[in-house]
Amino acid sequence: MNGLAAAKDLTAEAPRGLDAELEGYAWLPRMLDKARATLAGTAGRYLFGCPVDHTCMARLGIAPELVLDLAARHSDDHALLNALRAHGIPAAAEAWFDGQAVEDDLQETGNYLRVRAREALPDADGGHVFAGAEHGAAVSVVLIDAAPGDEQPPHVHPVEEVAVVHDGAATFFLGAQQARIVRAGQVVRVPAGIPHRWVATGDSRLRAVAVHGAAQIVTSPA
Predict the structure, then answer these.
(1) Are 146 and 200 in contact, with CB atoms under 8 Å apart?
(2) Which one of 12, 136, 155, 220 is separated from 2 by 20 to 30 angstroms, measured CA to CA?
(3) Do residues 151 and 198 touch, judged by C-beta distance below 8 A?
């Protein structure tokens, strides 16, 4: 594609500087260098999609897929910027940020917003599991998407579980006696150490998020 003609070999040279701007837009030149090089397979250690790239895209209100698409089609930065403007990005002054400061903070603290797609998470415990221990977090989350009639076998966790139902409904069973229907917009707490299970009820899919206050979900059959 035409944009790849402008791709730099970032294994041999660095992308444009952390303070580089394009018509007042901070970080954009450096991000475009990395995007084109990533598409061309010459990014080396300068991969597109670092935390500062995402800060830039968040301020512009655009997705990585759009940047890569336009980088592949436009070798001229100004033409690419015009294409971004056609997608409604804010003015340069509104989107400006200090890229050097973001990079310095990242290097000094190691703190960043880590995002994972649902499909990239392993399927277990009734849904896709974000295991905190694998992502530097002290909590774990299960993203539940179940068809009507789907159910869990009875089981026990050593920590409390909190489930938020976004769509559909589920009947939760607790111990040998209790049961309760939890509907969209409701939150349920399941005590630690008590056998429990859920069954997706109603006519629509159950979509819920279950949170465990532990870096690893430990499940034992009941």
Answers:
(1) yes
(2) 12
(3) yes
Tokens of 204: 């629509």
Residue whose tokens read 């790239």: 53
